[in-house]
Amino acid sequence: MKTAMRIVAAGSLLLLAACTTMPTGPAVMVLPGTGKNFDQFRLDDMECRQYASSQVGGDSPDGAAESSGIKSAAVGTAVGAAAGAIIGGRRGAAAGAGTGLIVGSVAGAGAAGHSQRTLQQRYDFGYQQCMYAKGHRVPVAGRFENTRPAPSSYSAPPPPPPGTPPPPPPR
After folding, report:
1. N or C terminus of the chain with fewer C-beta within 10 Å?
2. Using 50, 70 and 90 to split pLDDT, how confident is the model at 130?
């Protein structure tokens, strides 16, 4: 009975995780380039989305996450069943499968999240490269640097030459 409850709980978690989705487009901001109108920006955006999709093999972040999560849960179940059968016979196989499903589901959720992030990052890189190459503006991280010399390296101006100053020029 306890094993059945674990399997139902793990199945519920898997169904809940399957409901989450990620956007199928870029997760970065790109602005129209100088002198580019919005219609040109939209055309370039569509072309660059196709380019970025080809860079990740046409797979979506959701597809990668789903595939990774399902594989991890299936492997966890199989390994758990095998370990349970070796340790405790037929009864142990059921308990091992239930435990393996739960552990595999947790591991699968982590692997799915990693797959999603990695694929989304590769997609974003391809998209930004394409849009930048087409003349659009891609925000980049930057920092301001102080151009004044540091106080320790600052030296006072030299004193005026000795003697009387020259007279002002005539008007």
Report:
1. C
2. very high
